[in-house]
Amino acid sequence: MKIALMTRNAKLYSHQRLIQAAEERGHEIQPIDYMHCYMNITSMRPELRLAGEKLTGFDAVIPRIGASKTFYGLAVLRQFEMMGVWALNESVAVGRSRDKLRALQLLARDGIGLPVTAFADQTKQTDEVIEIVGGAPVVVKLLEGTQGVGVVLGETHKSARSMIEAFRGANQHILVQEFIKEAGGTDIRALVIGGKIVAAMQRTGAPDDFRSNLHRGGSAQTVKITPQERVTAIGAAKTMGLNVCGVDLLRAAHGPVVMEVNSSPGLEGIEAATGKDVAGTIIEFIESHAKPGKTKTRGRG
């Protein structure tokens, strides 16, 4: 097979592992900097080009789109789909997961466990928004944040109100969520491939940090998840329509709740914590599912 790997940095651990796993199985895999691609949008003859060369002959594409490059990355991924290339994660599904508000609305529609969440545009509704999620402490999140950036804890009503008003004053859209105190600064990352959990780790935040992101100094170890957590993670992946994703869960008193569904999950932390060959499992899934022209949505949505 000939596989396109959409990435801005082919040297990252996750991308090196995908390249290694593909080549070990006899496939040709080409890293493509999607921000340097350009496209010919012509009826019935879509083209994608890079450095003057047409990108042709690919059987599958693995999108690894940076959060800050979502708009253009999705445009390139849709062009691959228009050309009949099978996408590991389709553009519509990636777009759903990257829109945090839409993702939460879809998960809520399907009955997936979530922290109580509020959203408003006007600062005059700040007090009521804080009350909706059960009062302080509350978690305030930027809609465009990633890897723990733009996530703050409002420990008192006054401090939460100040944070919300400051973000909105800077024209930033935010979510306000209940603080799951019983999680104790830990969460679970479940790696879902093809509707099955292939690896899971528990992440613990750095001292005095309620966020558990490994990029922010957290640590990870393998964990055995409960049947309810398994159902929740698989259900979240299905709602998003993602073949491969990382589902972040908190253990709340009333059961597991989904914090985020990541369409380009990092592989380094979870492979190190669990010893699982996640990259190899991803390539095996592509081998058994990639077929020309079998993209379900063909870029619609």
Outline of the structure:
With 301 residues, the chain is of the alpha+beta class.
Question: Could you spell the SSE succession in H and E letters?
Answer: EHEEEEEHEHHEHEEHEEEEHEEHH
Q: Rounded to an integer, what's the Rg over CA atoms?
A: 20 Å
Tell me the count of domains. Answer: 3
The termini sit apart by 28 Å
Q: How many DSSP E strands?
A: 16
Which topology of the largest domain does CATH recognise?
Answer: D-amino Acid Aminotransferase, Chain A, domain 1
Strand content: 25-35%
What's the CATH C level of the largest domain?
A: Alpha Beta
- Stretches where pLDDT is under 50 for at least 5 consecutive residues are none
Quick one: overall form? Answer: globular
Q: Give the strand order of the largest sheet, numbering strands 1, 2, ... along the chain.
A: 14-13-12-15-16
| Structure classification | alpha+beta
* Count of DSSP H/I helices: 9
Let me know the average pLDDT. Answer: 91
CATH superfamily of the largest domain: ATP-grasp fold, B domain
CATH architecture call of the largest domain: 2-Layer Sandwich
Provide structural commentary.
With 301 residues, the chain is α+β, with helices and mostly antiparallel strands. The chain folds into three domains: 87 residues, Rossmann fold; 120 residues, 2-Layer Sandwich (D-amino Acid Aminotransferase, Chain A, domain 1), CATH 3.30.470; 63 residues, Dna Ligase, domain 1. Helices cover 32% and strands 27% of the residues. The chain has nine helices and 16 strands. The mean pLDDT is 91.
Descriptors:
Dna Ligase, domain 1, 4-stranded parallel sheet, Rossmann fold, D-amino Acid Aminotransferase, Chain A, domain 1, 3 domains, 301 residues, alpha+beta, globular, 5-stranded antiparallel sheet
